[in-house]
Amino acid sequence: MTLPETIPLLGFRWEDLLFMTLAAVMVGSALLVVTMKDIIRCGLAMIIAFSALAGLYVLAGAPVVAGAQVLVYIGAISVLVLFAIMLTQTKDAPASLVFQTQAFPAAIAAAVLALLIAVTVAATDWPTAGARILTDTTQLAQTLFADYTLPFEVVSVLLLAAVIGGVYLAKREPGGSD
Amino acid sequence: MYETLIPLIPLLPILGFAFSALFGRRLQAKWGRAAAEIVPVGIVVVVWVIAMIVVVPALQHAEPFGETGLDMKLWTWIPAGNFTVDVGFHVDALTAALLIVVTTIGMLVHIYSIGYMAHDAGAWRFFAYLNLFMFSMLLLVLADNWLLVFAGWELVGLCSYLLIGFWYQKRPAALAAKKAFIVNRVGDVGFALGIMAIWVNTGTLNIQASLAKLIETPAAGLVIPLSIIALLVFAGAMGKSAQFPLHVWLPDAMEGPTPVSALIHAATMVNAGVYLVARANPLFAHAQEVMVVVAAIGIFTAILAASIAFTQTDIKRVLAYSTLSQLGYMFAALGVGAYVAAIFHLMAHGFFKGLLFLGSGSVIHAVDGEQNMNRMGGLWRKIPITHWTMLIGAIAIAGIPPLAGFFSKDEILGEAFKNGFIWVWAIGLVVAVMTAFYMWRLMGKTFYGESHVDPHVAPKIRESAWSMTLPLILLAIPSVLIGMFLGLPFGDSRISQWLEPVFKASEEHLYGSPAEFQLFGIDGVLILISVAAATLGLVVGIWLFGAFRARGRQATVDGIAASGPATRFLYRASLNKWWFDELNDLLFIRIGGRVAASLWWFDRTIVDGAVNGVGGLTRGAGGGLRRIQTGRVQNYALGIAIGLIVMVGSFLLIVGQPR
Amino acid sequence: MFSFLNGISQSLDAYLVLAGLLFAIGTFGFLARRNAISMLMSIELMLNAANLAIISFGAFSTSLGASASVIALIVIAAAAAEATIGLAIVIAIYRNKKTPLVDEYDAMRQ
User: Fold this and answer.
1) Which of A10, A54, B175, B627 could be disulfide-bonded to A69 (CB atoms 3.0-4.6 Å)?
2) Which pLDDT belongs to residue C97?
3) Would the pTM of this model clear 0.90, i.e. be above it?
4) Which site among A98, A99, A119, A121 would you substitute to test the B interface, given the most B Cβ atoms closer than 10 Å to its Cβ?
5) Would an 8 Å CB–CB cutoff place B642 in contact with chain A?
């Protein structure tokens, strides 16, 4: 049985449905990240947001990046964040105030920013191809290791520096940090 | 020789001042008053001698003075290109006449002060100031350019302030000194403006040169008209010589020691104004409207002051108002063109007024400081030298021939009549009657009749020391003789011969050549009328106030004073000096004070408010802006976000939607 | 019924608007949360939004090709490094000030 082109009742294609679902999940969990009171739950919402993003990357034809997203963001950074939350928890209950006093102006600023970006994007005539381009993995490997060798190596050094710095900063020693 | 002698005349007194100022206190403390006094007094005596040596050839137009006088330039004071002023002296017959008065009376006052200041701890200071005053007055008289005259002018004003306020711990004295200085200042402004006007018009400040240029230039070529310049110069003279309305300081100046009153306010400083107008006579002769003003103010002051002298009880105040009155005579003379008569009266007045003041000082000394005439009386036997010399002075000022006052006063009145100023002559005659009257009132109350002296003081009355009586005698002699010496022969008197070159050009410009003197014509009639007026005043005075043993009729005096509403008003007005001090107080202190207060309010509230407001605004703005610095990163980040939005948004709006 | 949504996943605009929306949410979280770690999570969201934008450009632009993915990978690496250091700093400050709340870090205040 072949699936029809567009979903019968809704009038758009499957891909569109998938896109909108992923988008909704992502935006919803992002909102939860910035608004929830319990910070551990914020961390978990962030993980959900990252997964939805990985799905979107696949939809946009970049499966390698999606994989890297899952590995690095969900597997490493989110765990790191959760560990940090554990280390900096105060003994008492979480603070009563979630938001700063400037939350309201910040909200307005964020909304205006989103609006500006939307308006700019909508008004621009993008010179684009009709359909999505799927990135070939062989092609990607070629580009990354041949054309972009230097940035690749620099990033390695960057990661090294980050590791050393992080260890040094977080060492449990008197006078070792500022 | 004269080139060396003349600069010594002002130089020695200023050295005397420096010496006394530096060493006087210590000398007096260690070796007594005499040690501190010997240098200043000695210097003034020497100056008198030198002046007499210089004066004789100057008056007779001998070499090197000649008719126009001797000009000496000492050095260039202000070399500023176009504006060059020298220090120099100009000595002619007019200078000589003033020199005689200043140095003679100055010397006698210095000698008198030795006795007067015998019990005063500040004697060394007194003599220092006196020497400074001599320097200033001599500088004024000898100067050959207006700026130097102004310097001397200001200095005599300063000395007047220092000397009136000599007993500065007494509040009335300090106030009187301030009043004198301030009222003088008002006149000085006029004089300074006049000097500037002269310079603007002629480009030179040398007196002779500028006057010559002023009268040569036609009226259209002058930036400032001659009459304005003359008025300004006269304004200065009004201040210094206490003419109405700047006369209010002179009576108050009697708070100073009596020698000061004699020297400064009778014989020398107040004559500076007369000297100034006489010096500038070409200027005035070519501005005849101003001459009328001068005559009017002069004769008005004369009668005003005489009316006030009728009721004053302080012996020195009577003499002060008398001085005002006689000064008015001098200005009236200058105003009608009788220059020689004015200078003649200046000289004669210097002698007999100086005599009267010094005599009054002796009287006050004798009655232990009492100055109110109502508490004197019957003194003529107890202080004979003082009495007889003052009697001579009183008769002289009344204008009885052959004493000095008759000659000079009659000449003024005669010239006024002959030059057509009948009103000046008439008022002057009335003033002559009044002068004789109030002078005899003074004599009667002080010396004659029964004694009203305080019983505690009465036994202590005795004649003053020789240092005080000798000057009185020495002054009485010229009071008797100088009239005859200078004023005869009639019609071509010695003094008019001496002063002729100074005034001839102006007199001819005004009136042509002088008429012949007609002793048995108009002139004789005028003389008789003057003498009659003076005698009338004297007789009424003797009848009302007594003479020698005859006592006065005080009851009659009080009766006359209270007889009718008009006389009562006149009595009160006279007693209150016609309320001029109150008028000045109202105008300048009250109203002027309000204006000043409102201006101060304006300055305080609006100007300072604006300035402080700017400061406050800055502080407020700073305080407000300070709150942006919260120290919190998130607030700064919000600022960044807002900035970003604004930039992008404005880019979108202005540049337009991207395509 | 929703036929206007047809082909939405074929258009660049939708992806970009989505990225912008995610970025705005991240900005709001960064500016408004009190806890330092919440701020760092919001920064991660913003970085991800940028990543999404890059990937979507790569999906619809022939000239970019594989470079977009390369850029995205490098961004992910950089984000990881930054998250490490950031969290280490937060922990260090926590040890000093005993609180993870940024509005109590006011040593720069006058």
Assistant:
1) A54
2) 81
3) no
4) A119
5) yes
